[in-house]
Amino acid sequence: MDSDSKPSFIERLTSLLLREPEDREQLIKILHSAYERNLMDADALTIIEGALAASETRVTDVMIPRAQMDAIDIDDPLDEIIPIVIEAAHSRFPVVDGDRDNVLGILLAKDLLRVHTEKDFTLRDWLRPAVFIPESKRLNVLLREFRVSRNHMAIVVNEYGGVAGLVTIEDVLEQIVGDIEDEYDFDEAHDNIRLDASGRYRVKARTEIEDFNEAFSTKYSDDEFDTVGGLILRHLGRMPKRNEIVDIDGTRFQVLRADSRRLYTLLVDQPKLQTGADKATA
Question: 138, 193, 195, 274: which is deepest, by most CB within 10 A?
Answer without folding.
Answer: 193
